[in-house]
TrEMBL record:
Gene3D superfamilies: Putative cyclase (3.50.30.50). It comes from the Bacteria. SUPFAM superfamilies: Putative cyclase. This is Cyclase family protein.
Amino acid sequence: MEKESDPSNNWGRWGDDDERGALNLITADAVLRAVSTVRTGTALTLAVPLRAGEGPIFEGRAPLQHFMTRHGGDYAAGLKEKGFGFADDYVLVATHGTTHIDALAHVWREGAMWNGHSSNLVTSIGARKCGIENVGAIVTRAVLVDFADQYEASGDPRHAIDVDDLSAAVAATGIDVMPGDALLVRTGWVRAWRSQRAQVTAWPGLAPNCAEWINEAGFALVGADNIAVELGPSPRENDAAPLHARLVRDFGIYLVELLDLEAIAAQGRSSFLLSIAPMPLVGGVGSPVNPIAVL
Ligand code: UVW
């Protein structure tokens, strides 16, 4: 049962022990609303390809490594199997090092993460509260807004999308946003990065003043084709990630980063079914994902 809302945060709204935050808004009705948007049955991935040694990836995180542990060379060297051959491989990937979802245990401020859980519960052996395993399967309706051309036209590597831009773009879709919907924001950064017109040191994104509006609209998650959903580096001195702090820690709203929104933008659809299934990595603070849009 939901408690009365507190405009300063959503702590306690889904119970004092809650570890799932705004995903509680994705009810069976929200899933059925997503299903009702399906028209053609076309399915698209929203993930950037995983390539060994390549990004895009935030500075300080190591790119993915891919190791082949069984391949044709073993057989060429004389390895025998009974009538067949096979290949095996391993990947070493930062959970936030490609298209990914942040767990609620990813961020905190003043010693408290989502719902007031202590940041001391996140240790070198993993998160004892709010780990990524709490997410489960996400199926909901996505609302897509597109600022890619505005970013290109601005010439500003840190083009800011503020609350007026965002609310006007969502209103222009004509969609009546409902609790549990997902907001997807195409900033244009992945397109620019791919054609070597952008760096991982600066990216366009949502301004800090978007947080309260996103929460009041009822979005359960926000995804974007940039490093951090929010504008980076932060426009606020001494506040490295203001939108992470408000959305993830205070409101329990999930962030999905480094999406590839090029193919879905080309479809000209503002709403569709979105499915995201993080790895059930117990104690993980994020997970690579391959989000699927169904049109
Ligand atoms: C950054 O904040 C840079 O990204 P993420 O939220 O994945 O950690």
